[in-house]
Specification:
Radius of gyration of chain B: 28 Å
Number of helices of chain B: 20
Shape of chain B: elongated
Distance between the termini of chain B: 75 Å
Order of helices and strands of chain A: HHHHHHHEEEHHHHEHHH
Oligomer: heterodimer
Number of strands of chain B: 24
Number of helices of chain A: 14
Largest sheet of chain B: 6 strands, mixed
Strand order of the largest sheet of chain A: 1-4
Distance between the termini of chain A: 30 Å
């Protein structure tokens, strides 16, 4: 009995979300076909980004709000690839390579910063994200077209300086990965499986799984548990943490590219902003904590969180006659989940300190 | 035989506080060399230097040289020490609770095998070879006698003794191990476990591993070691083969002060037995486990009054009741005026200061600095150490610092600086901080409970000396509650023995052991009556 109770309690967040999702689906009376199509789209779109959060959690850095930096790197790379006249798969690969280079640099810098803020990584990475957003805006609003040459005038604001609010990827990078291999299923082939992004996600899962079976992964797990003991055992703690942040940032950059090619337009000054928040919320909904997260947490989290996203407006409409309520509800839930997770984190830290003190 | 290790003229100071002075230590292969000394004598610092612990580098390194196998070496990180073949079992466990025993034993020395990714990205992406790691761990566990312990269970939840053995297994699994440092390994073990442990230590020394053994238990030191080095206050006071020492001579050298009844300084003028500073009548205190059920005594101005008795008889309740920490009633007069019970603020304002036996829980702000702890109550209760800045009243940091430094010197508080958090201090030094805080309040009566509980011999003597000094010089009346009769008898003028919540006798320190024994057992009155 106690065991069952413990299992239920430790998985309380996903369970609550299953209940919420199921009741919202019933209330909204959403056709299953539509729901499946939407969920599959969201999985292909978002999983990669959510998975990019796993490594820092295991390495003890908590939730890396700094994946916003990775997302910026991904977007920036795409702008330049388009400007250089790249399109199709080549354009995408070039974008990924360029994004990786930028992300390694940004990841290294944020790793250095986070090493100076041990124990306060989460708030530091969050504020770092806000700061980087400012730099990003300065760069793409004032430098592009003035200091930095940019030849595609249609992407620029009328006076030739700064990028437009939205950049359309149609004809350049839109759906490049999705369209390579599509399997159609269900009635009239309504359910479309974009195989390439799915395969990439599976490969990433396998890579993460593999990583934690290697020496580097073992070092990350050790550092994540106890930095001091790891250092005494001769592990270069700072280096391991920097590698974890770099990996996370690079994965986020690639994840953002996968996300944007699916969406089809880049919201120049907003696309990256919500990435950190929603990815983290999804991971937490999947049952992860600030100290423990697995691939399954990520996948389940994406499914549950986005199911609620899909059905909440309809449910809100049915219940209150206003889709706005549902919209509001999902925003509210994203923040509530994160707040809950952080409070739990604080509580756990306090508890473990109390236990240590008792010793 | 050639020495495997020599540490020459090692000096180390923490923020100007010299903790090691010209320490020399040498070690031969296969010997068991004990390092003994009181808490804070510098043993752990010396070992941290040998092991290149980060705390040494972060505090400015050390002076002197380390010669390993005849060559001078620089050990600036634990990794370097390990490469040389120095292993250390730390006082606090260096085990990762979420890892299995095998993963802990093999931490950062994992056996790996190549895979296709590691060929591209290098060694750090090689896969762990779990079966081989388990085999090695098994062998190491068997060597330390843990044959029944599964090597693939998590360390979290293991009994402490097992963790200790896992730590040793980790060290001996290091193939190049030449020196093993054991920092108070037996402190957490029971007697029977110690026996097995010492056997393992002997076995390792026969294998040719030099062992540096740190322990407080002198019987173990005498039993197991070949040579011994004694440290006191950062100096080597003696060293040599164990056969030239016995427990008493080691203890004397460690403490360096004769352990005997103190020669108390004389008072300027004798106590006036009619000058009662506080009169307690029929005091009842509701302190769980230490109930007071009708205690009376007249406390004479300027005396040191001891309160003794067995645990649970109520001796701790008296001071707690007067200080207002537990509900109490009774009629108490302070300087011939009625005294309000159940009012901690009233007691403080009248100059009655209480030092709790629970110093970590009640006595100290553990995360605050030494200086704040010393002055906090004075600031809070009397508004001292404050100054006006325009219309704001603020802390006078300079005065606080000055006062703290004065107290640190006077009480010999071993801290790195006045701003160090008290949590990091040893028990004895925490107690000294408590005393410093109490005397900062310039009390008329100081109630002090169990002032020497859980602190080592040297600190004990200092604490008692200081109490006597303040009593003689400042005329502060002291009421000391203690479970250690010997310490009450060494400094008190009178000793009240409490039994079943009531006073059973008031004795002089010179009274016989038998009288004290009977008083503690609550039989005193009956015996006296019987003799008549």
């Amino acid at each position: 009995m106690v065991k069952i109770k413990n299992i239920l309690l430790s998985n309380i967040v996903p369970i609550v979300f299953v209940v919420l999702c199921v009741s919202a689906i019933i209330i909204a009376d959403i056709p299953i076909n539509f729901l499946v199509v939407e969920i599959i789209t969201r999985i292909t779109r978002n999983s990669f980004l959510v998975l990019s959060l796993l490594i820092p959690v295991v390495a003890g850095l908590g939730l890396n709000f700094g994946i916003v930096l990775g997302a910026m790197a991904g977007q920036a790379a795409m702008f330049f690839a388009i400007d250089w006249g790249m399109s199709g798969v080549t354009g995408l690969i070039i974008s990924c390579l360029l994004a990786t280079v930028i992300a390694i640099l940004l990841g290294f810098l944020s790793g250095l910063l986070l090493n100076r803020a041990k124990g306060k990584e989460m708030i530091t990475s969050m504020i770092l994200g806000f700061f980087a957003n400012g730099v990003y805006q300065l760069f793409f609003l004032f430098f592009i077209g003035s200091i930095i040459p940019f030849s595609t005038k249609t992407m620029l604001l009328p006076d030739g300086v700064g990028l437009r609010n939205t950049v359309d990827l149609w004809g350049t990078l839109e759906g490049v990965l999705n369209n390579i291999w599509i399997i159609r299923m269900g009635q009239y082939g309504m359910i479309r499986l974009y195989m390439v992004p799915l395969i990439i996600i599976i490969v990433l899962c396998l890579f993460i799984f593999f990583l934690f079976k290697t020496k580097l992964g073992q070092d990350m797990r050790a550092v994540g548990q106890d930095m001091y003991s790891s250092e005494v055992a001769g592990i270069d703690v700072d280096k391991v943490r920097i590698i974890a942040v770099i990996l996370s940032t690079v994965l986020a950059a690639i994840g953002q590219i996968i996300y944007l090619q699916d969406i089809g337009t880049i919201n120049t000054y907003n696309s990256h902003e919500q990435v950190g928040l929603f990815s983290i919320a999804a991971l937490l909904v999947g049952g992860a904590t600030t100290r423990k997260a697995s691939i399954w947490n990520a996948i389940i989290g994406v499914i549950l969180f986005h199911t609620l996203f899909i059905v909440a407006p309809s449910a809100g409409n049915k219940l209150f006659g206003q889709p706005q309520i549902g919209e509001y509800f999902r925003e509210f839930i994203a923040y509530a989940v994160i707040a809950f997770a952080l409070a739990m984190h604080g509580l756990e830290t306090k508890k473990s300190m109390a236990i240590q003190k008792a010793k | 035989m050639e020495k495997i290790l020599e540490m020459r003229n090692i000096c180390k100071s923490y923020y100007g506080n010299q903790v090691l002075t010209n320490v020399n230590l040498d070690l031969f292969p296969g010997e068991i060399h004990s390092l003994v000394g009181e808490n804070g004598s510098g043993k752990s610092t010396l070992m941290n230097i040998l092991f290149g612990m980060p705390v040494i580098q972060n505090t400015g390194g050390f002076e002197g040289e380390i010669i390993f196998e005849g060559k001078p070496v620089i050990i600036d990180s634990p990794r370097k020490a390990m490469e040389l073949g120095i292993g250390m079992v730390h006082q606090e466990f260096m085990l990762l609770p979420g890892f299995t025993i095998t993963e802990n034993i093999k931490l950062n020395r994992e056996i790996t095998k190549k895979n296709f990714l590691s060929r591209i990205f290098g060694k750090s992406l090689e896969t762990l070879d779990i079966p081989r790691m388990r085999k090695d761990a098994r062998k190491a566990l068997d060597t330390v006698g843990m044959t029944t312990l599964d090597e693939w269970i998590p360390v979290a939840g293991l009994p402490v003794a097992y963790k200790q053995f896992v730590e040793i297994a980790r060290e001996i699994d290091k193939k190049n191990l030449k020196i093993l440092v054991l920092d108070e390994p037996t402190a957490v073990l029971s007697e029977s476990e110690v026996k097995g442990f010492l056997e393992v230590v002997r076995f390792l020394s026969k294998e040719g591993i030099a062992i540096l053994f740190i322990s407080h238990r002198l019987s173990e030191v005498l039993e197991v070691s070949d040579r011994v080095t004694i440290l006191r206050d950062g100096f080597v006071v003696d060293h040599g083969p164990i056969s030239s020492f016995n427990a008493i001579s080691i203890a004397e050298k460690m403490v360096g002060r004769k352990v005997e009844i103190l020669e108390l300084p004389k008072r300027g003028k004798n106590l006036d037995e009619t000058d009662v500073i506080m009169s307690i009548n029929d005091l009842h205190v509701l302190m769980p486990g230490e109930m007071v059920k009708g205690f009376d005594i007249d406390i004479i101005r300027g005396e040191i009054l001891g309160i003794g008795g067995l645990a649970g008889q109520g001796k701790l309740g008296i001071a707690n009741g007067i200080a207002g920490l537990f509900p109490s009633n009774g009629s108490v007069y302070f300087e011939d005026e009625p005294f309000q019970l159940n009012n901690p603020g009233f007691a403080l304002n009248k100059g009655i200061v209480y030092l709790s036996e629970d110093r970590r829980g009640v006595g100290l702000l553990l995360d605050e600095s030494v200086e704040i702890n010393i002055t906090a109550t004075a600031i809070q209760a009397y508004g001292e150490f404050m100054k006006w800045l325009l219309f704001l009243k603020i802390y006078d940091k300079k005065a606080i610092r000055q006062h703290a430094i004065k107290m640190i010197k006077e009480l010999d508080i071993r801290c790195k600086s006045p701003s160090q958090p008290v949590r990091r201090l040893s028990g004895g030094n925490q107690q000294k901080v408590c005393l410093a805080r109490a005397f900062t309040l310039k009390p008329k009566i100081l109630f002090v409970s169990e002032p020497t509980r859980g602190i080592d011999v040297g600190a004990k003597k200092l604490v008692l000396d200081y109490l006597v000094k303040m009593n003689r010089e400042k005329g502060i009346t002291i009421v000391m509650t203690s479970s250690e009769l010997a310490e009450l008898r060494s400094i008190c003028d009178r000793i009240a023995i409490v039994s079943e919540g009531k006073p059973s006798a008031i004795l002089k320190p010179t009274d016989s052991d038998a009288e004290f024994g009977m008083a503690m057992a609550g039989k005193f009155q009956e015996v006296i009556m019987g003799e008549r």
